[in-house]
Amino acid sequence: MAEAQNIPAGSTTAGSIAVAAESTVATRMSAPPSFDVADFPVPHGREEEWRFTPLERLRGLHDGTATATGTGIKVDIDAPEGVIVETVGRDDARLGKAGTPVDRVAAQAYSSFEKASVVTVPKEAVLTEPVRISVHGEGGTAFAHQVIELGAFAEAVVVIDHTGDAVLAANVDFLLGDGAKLTVVSVQDWDDKAVHVSQHNALVGRDATFKSFVVTFGGDVVRLHPRVQYAGPGGEAELFGLYFTDQGQHQEHRLLVDHNAPHCKSNAAYKGALQGQDAHAVWIGDVLIRVMAEGTDTYEMNRNLVLTDGARVDSVPNLEIETGEIAGAGHASATGRFDDEQLFYLQARGIPAGEARRLVVRGFFAELVQKIGLPDVEERLLAKIDAELEASV
């Protein structure tokens, strides 16, 4: 795999299957963050934040023509004892506290939902079982908002599972009190025709730890925008992700870690595999280190495995640094085709071609999957990867 690491600003490397570049403009959106849809122009695909996205396949989410229809989605929440689950109106003060919409779809989602779900883990509570949130599409168009709030020194794992068929625009907020520890696993296992566009906002308190796993398999178009800010010094954020992009699918993950407080850490690692004609994956990794963020330690990495001809990856890591008083900052982007030598090595030892292929791809993803720490989720994801590979044979 060709790798680009610590590329000088403005330089670009390109190939037939991938683009890796660094610039200081990707963290600057075409319009400032706002809760008002009218503050964002209708995108046309020439804007930096929309240039990879197939707008014509968003079913009107980007231009205001999409309206809530049918049953949309059904949300079920299974929470351990002591966790508070609420359905609240638009006037709840916790909504939007973790972050402001940064594009027109997120603003449209914020302006259009009627009720939001709020899950609260009280301060100092340590959950021994995960909170499980099921978001099931039932064929319509929906706008949604969810809030996960942890009190000071609370610890929790939250699994958000997306299935079914829907056109969904949503915002998900994560509020971490001082010293809190939150692990979130967001699985996009949609049916083939689903469209899912969502902004994830995490506000990490002083000395708090936020760990995110984003897993994307299904859907026609999935465009996710995880964002992290810090409410005080000492916060840590780990953003992990894996995606398997099939024929005709568009899967886009756009990360921003805004180091706006001193002595905070972040680490981002996303891995993807692609197969089939017109499979398209996009990964944008933005890290902004502000002038007040002395002592920052950050690293971001994206690796892609292209299994067949006809697939395309756009991988763009960005660093914008406003202070020299940092502990470390770096990035890496690597994309490569399936390694025939690895297959030959395994086959020479009596392993059939199909099984050898499965072992190589499983090994590629295993490091990230094993970090989740939930055996049932890990087994499900590995089984899904196996099913994806079998479908391509």
Concise account of the structure shown:
This protein has 4 helices and 19 strands. It has 393 residues and is mainly β. Helix 2 crosses helix 3 and helix 3 runs antiparallel to helix 4.
Describe this structure in words.
The structure is a single chain. By secondary structure, the protein is mostly beta strands. The chain has 2 domains: 2-338, no CATH class; 339-393, no CATH class. The protein has 4 helices and 19 strands. It has helices at 104-112, 340-347, 353-369, 375-392, and strands spanning 2-5, 12-14, 18-21, 73-78, 84-88, 116-121, 131-150, 155-176, 181-188, 195-204, 209-216, 221-230, 236-245, 250-259, 265-274, 280-289, 297-306, 312-321, 328-337. It starts with a strand and ends with a helix. The model is unreliable at 1-26 (pLDDT under 50). This is Fe-S cluster assembly protein SufD. Belongs to the iron-sulfur cluster assembly SufBD family.
What's the layout of helices and strands?
Blueprint lengths: L1 E4 L6 E3 L3 E4 L51 E6 L5 E5 L15 H9 L3 E6 L9 E20 L4 E22 L4 E8 L6 E10 L4 E8 L4 E10 L5 E10 L4 E10 L5 E10 L5 E10 L7 E10 L5 E10 L6 E10 L2 H8 L5 H17 L5 H18 L1
Parallel strand pairs: 3-18, 6-7, 7-8, 8-9, 8-10, 9-11, 10-12, 11-13, 12-14, 13-15, 14-16, 15-17, 16-18, 17-19
Antiparallel strand pairs: 1-19, 2-3, 4-7, 5-6
Helix pairs in contact: 2-3, 3-4
